[in-house]
Design brief:
The protein is α/β, with parallel strands linked by helices and about 160 residues long. It contains nine helices and five strands, in the order βαβαααβαβαααβα.
Protein backbone atom coordinates (compact mmCIF):
# COMPACT_ATOMS: atom_id res chain seq x y z
CA UNK A 1 0.00 0.00 0.00
CA UNK A 2 1.35 3.39 -1.00
CA UNK A 3 -1.18 5.77 0.53
CA UNK A 4 -4.50 5.74 2.35
CA UNK A 5 -7.03 7.82 0.43
CA UNK A 6 -10.03 9.07 2.44
CA UNK A 7 -13.26 9.80 0.61
CA UNK A 8 -16.75 10.80 1.65
CA UNK A 9 -19.21 13.65 1.63
CA UNK A 10 -18.43 17.12 2.96
CA UNK A 11 -18.46 17.01 6.74
CA UNK A 12 -17.79 13.29 7.12
CA UNK A 13 -14.47 14.05 8.82
CA UNK A 14 -11.87 13.44 6.11
CA UNK A 15 -9.55 16.18 7.37
CA UNK A 16 -9.94 15.59 11.10
CA UNK A 17 -9.85 11.81 10.86
CA UNK A 18 -7.06 11.98 8.28
CA UNK A 19 -4.82 14.00 10.56
CA UNK A 20 -5.45 11.68 13.50
CA UNK A 21 -5.04 8.55 11.37
CA UNK A 22 -1.70 9.82 10.05
CA UNK A 23 -0.51 10.35 13.64
CA UNK A 24 -1.59 6.90 14.75
CA UNK A 25 -0.17 5.15 11.68
CA UNK A 26 3.10 7.10 11.61
CA UNK A 27 2.33 8.38 8.11
CA UNK A 28 2.45 11.80 6.50
CA UNK A 29 -0.77 13.74 5.99
CA UNK A 30 -1.92 15.50 2.82
CA UNK A 31 -5.16 17.39 2.26
CA UNK A 32 -5.75 17.73 -1.49
CA UNK A 33 -7.99 20.79 -1.08
CA UNK A 34 -5.32 22.50 1.04
CA UNK A 35 -2.68 21.62 -1.55
CA UNK A 36 -4.82 23.11 -4.33
CA UNK A 37 -5.33 26.30 -2.30
CA UNK A 38 -1.60 26.67 -1.62
CA UNK A 39 -0.60 26.00 -5.23
CA UNK A 40 -3.12 28.51 -6.57
CA UNK A 41 -2.74 31.16 -3.89
CA UNK A 42 -6.44 31.39 -3.17
CA UNK A 43 -9.05 29.61 -1.06
CA UNK A 44 -11.36 27.14 -2.75
CA UNK A 45 -14.44 29.42 -2.46
CA UNK A 46 -12.47 32.04 -4.40
CA UNK A 47 -11.37 29.47 -7.01
CA UNK A 48 -15.02 28.49 -7.49
CA UNK A 49 -16.15 32.15 -7.67
CA UNK A 50 -13.43 33.43 -10.00
CA UNK A 51 -12.52 30.40 -12.10
CA UNK A 52 -15.55 28.12 -11.78
CA UNK A 53 -16.21 24.59 -10.60
CA UNK A 54 -14.94 23.02 -13.83
CA UNK A 55 -11.56 24.70 -13.37
CA UNK A 56 -11.42 23.55 -9.75
CA UNK A 57 -12.17 19.96 -10.85
CA UNK A 58 -9.25 20.12 -13.33
CA UNK A 59 -6.95 21.31 -10.54
CA UNK A 60 -8.25 18.50 -8.34
CA UNK A 61 -7.54 15.91 -11.03
CA UNK A 62 -3.99 17.21 -11.44
CA UNK A 63 -3.44 16.96 -7.67
CA UNK A 64 -4.73 13.38 -7.67
CA UNK A 65 -2.48 12.46 -10.59
CA UNK A 66 0.53 13.73 -8.62
CA UNK A 67 -0.21 11.25 -5.81
CA UNK A 68 1.74 8.70 -7.85
CA UNK A 69 4.86 10.58 -6.74
CA UNK A 70 4.04 10.15 -3.05
CA UNK A 71 4.15 7.21 -0.72
CA UNK A 72 3.24 6.74 2.94
CA UNK A 73 0.54 9.39 3.21
CA UNK A 74 -2.99 9.61 4.51
CA UNK A 75 -4.72 11.74 1.88
CA UNK A 76 -7.99 13.60 2.36
CA UNK A 77 -9.83 14.20 -0.90
CA UNK A 78 -12.56 16.74 -1.52
CA UNK A 79 -16.15 15.55 -1.29
CA UNK A 80 -16.58 15.50 -5.07
CA UNK A 81 -13.19 14.10 -6.01
CA UNK A 82 -14.24 10.47 -6.43
CA UNK A 83 -17.54 11.37 -8.07
CA UNK A 84 -15.37 12.20 -11.09
CA UNK A 85 -14.71 8.92 -12.98
CA UNK A 86 -11.29 10.19 -14.15
CA UNK A 87 -10.20 10.74 -10.56
CA UNK A 88 -11.54 7.38 -9.41
CA UNK A 89 -9.69 5.66 -12.26
CA UNK A 90 -6.47 7.55 -11.46
CA UNK A 91 -6.66 6.51 -7.80
CA UNK A 92 -7.49 2.93 -8.75
CA UNK A 93 -4.41 2.89 -10.98
CA UNK A 94 -2.24 3.98 -8.04
CA UNK A 95 -3.15 0.87 -6.02
CA UNK A 96 -3.65 3.01 -2.93
CA UNK A 97 -6.19 1.92 -0.31
CA UNK A 98 -9.39 3.95 -0.49
CA UNK A 99 -11.37 4.39 2.73
CA UNK A 100 -14.96 5.65 2.60
CA UNK A 101 -15.81 7.62 5.74
CA UNK A 102 -19.52 6.91 5.77
CA UNK A 103 -21.71 9.21 7.85
CA UNK A 104 -25.45 9.83 7.50
CA UNK A 105 -26.46 12.98 5.64
CA UNK A 106 -27.78 14.71 8.77
CA UNK A 107 -24.46 14.22 10.57
CA UNK A 108 -22.56 15.69 7.63
CA UNK A 109 -25.02 18.53 7.19
CA UNK A 110 -24.89 19.48 10.87
CA UNK A 111 -21.09 19.72 10.57
CA UNK A 112 -21.09 21.88 7.40
CA UNK A 113 -24.26 23.98 7.60
CA UNK A 114 -22.40 27.12 8.78
CA UNK A 115 -19.35 26.70 6.53
CA UNK A 116 -18.24 28.89 3.63
CA UNK A 117 -18.02 25.92 1.27
CA UNK A 118 -19.31 26.97 -2.15
CA UNK A 119 -21.65 24.01 -2.53
CA UNK A 120 -23.13 24.64 0.93
CA UNK A 121 -23.64 28.33 0.17
CA UNK A 122 -25.14 27.71 -3.28
CA UNK A 123 -27.55 24.87 -2.45
CA UNK A 124 -30.52 24.25 -0.22
CA UNK A 125 -30.43 21.40 2.31
CA UNK A 126 -32.62 19.40 -0.07
CA UNK A 127 -30.19 19.95 -2.94
CA UNK A 128 -27.29 18.95 -0.71
CA UNK A 129 -29.18 15.80 0.24
CA UNK A 130 -29.62 14.95 -3.45
CA UNK A 131 -25.89 15.55 -4.01
CA UNK A 132 -25.08 13.34 -1.01
CA UNK A 133 -27.29 10.57 -2.41
CA UNK A 134 -25.80 10.84 -5.91
CA UNK A 135 -22.20 10.72 -4.66
CA UNK A 136 -22.62 7.82 -2.23
CA UNK A 137 -22.55 5.16 -4.95
CA UNK A 138 -19.26 6.61 -6.26
CA UNK A 139 -17.70 6.42 -2.80
CA UNK A 140 -18.86 2.83 -2.38
CA UNK A 141 -17.56 1.85 -5.82
CA UNK A 142 -14.13 3.36 -5.18
CA UNK A 143 -13.70 2.16 -1.59
CA UNK A 144 -11.66 -0.78 -0.42
CA UNK A 145 -12.97 -0.17 3.09
CA UNK A 146 -16.00 1.58 4.62
CA UNK A 147 -16.11 2.84 8.20
CA UNK A 148 -18.78 4.57 10.27
CA UNK A 149 -17.70 8.22 10.36
CA UNK A 150 -20.46 9.35 12.72
CA UNK A 151 -18.36 8.14 15.66
CA UNK A 152 -15.77 10.27 17.52
CA UNK A 153 -12.55 10.96 15.59
CA UNK A 154 -10.32 8.56 17.54
CA UNK A 155 -12.80 5.71 17.13
CA UNK A 156 -13.04 6.30 13.38
CA UNK A 157 -9.25 6.46 12.98
CA UNK A 158 -8.77 3.29 15.05
CA UNK A 159 -11.51 1.49 13.08
CA UNK A 160 -9.60 2.24 9.88
CA UNK A 161 -6.33 0.97 11.35
CA UNK A 162 -7.99 -2.15 12.75
CA UNK A 163 -9.50 -2.99 9.36
CA UNK A 164 -6.23 -2.72 7.44
CA UNK A 165 -4.29 -5.91 6.70
Amino acid sequence: MNNLILCGFMGCGKTTVGQRLAQLAGMGYLDLDQQIQEENGMPIPQIFAQLGQDHFRRLEHQAIARLAQREGYVVSTGGGALANPQNAAAIDHLHDKVVFLDAPFQVCFDRIRESDRPLVQQNTPEQLRALFDSRRSHYLAAADLKVDASLPVDQVARAVLDALP
